Each structure stands twice: as C-alpha cells, then as structure tokens.
Amino acid sequence: MVSRTNKFRGNRTHGRGRKSGRGAGIHGGTGNAGLHKHKFMHMLKFDRDHFGVHGFKRPQKMVERRKGIRVGSVEAILPSLVSAGHASMEGGRATVDLTAAGYYKLLSGGSPSVPLQITVAHVTEKAKAAVESAGGSVTLK
Prior knowledge:
Blueprint: H1 4-7, H2 40-46, E1 68-70, H3 71-76, H4 78-84, E2 87-90, E3 93-97, H5 98-101, E4 105-107, E5 116-120, E6 122-123, H6 125-133, E7 137-140
Parallel strand pairs: 1-4, 3-5, 4-6, 5-7
Antiparallel strand pairs: 2-3
C-alpha cells in the first residue's frame, strides 16, 4: 500500500488547500499559540494553572534548618559529642546538651543502654519514654 505522502507526490498542496499545509497552520499554531484566543477552552479544561504565578518560594537564607536526632543515634555519636564538649561522662551516666550540638528535637528510635541526661528544645513522647526507661531524664531548654 502506498503511503499518504507518496500518494501526493507531484501534487503541490498534498490535499490541504493553499495555506493550511504551511508550517503549523492547520493546527492553530505551534506550541502554546492561541491559549488566550482560539485554544482558550482547551487551556481551561486541561491546563487550568498554565498562566499566572502559583505559590511562593522562601529565600533559603531565611529558612531555619531544624535538625532532629533519634535516641539510638545519640548513644552512637556520644564519643564525638564528648570530644566536642557537648557531653560529659560521669560514672555510668552521660550528660548531653543537644541544643549546643546543633540539634533541635529528640526523636524516638532505638533505646539507650546507658542512662542519659539530655537537654534539648523539643522531644517526642516516645523518645522521652525511651530515655526514662533506661534510667535517664530529658530537660527541655
């Protein structure tokens, strides 16, 4: 079977009249042409949010980064916190200041094997229960 293009070889307009076959004329323009005119209803139906500004993006220097840490991770990084001066070991008990270490919230996840006395800005109920079950305490700053 002969293809449509080959069928029209030798025919100047390929069955489209004089102007509709040039460029993208038969489609009403290329790309987003006519979205405010003859393709307006199509835009309203299928791409409602095409025009305008939507939402906002805060400057990254204004966004405060709030880091959280899990209870199990506190014990894992305890040696580095002691060397940085944010924690101290006394007997079998560790005193940790997470706000000085740059952490905002104590999250649940894991359970400490040593009693921890933690100072932090915010704590979840499960994290507080985990620390207290190991014989430690949580102080809110």
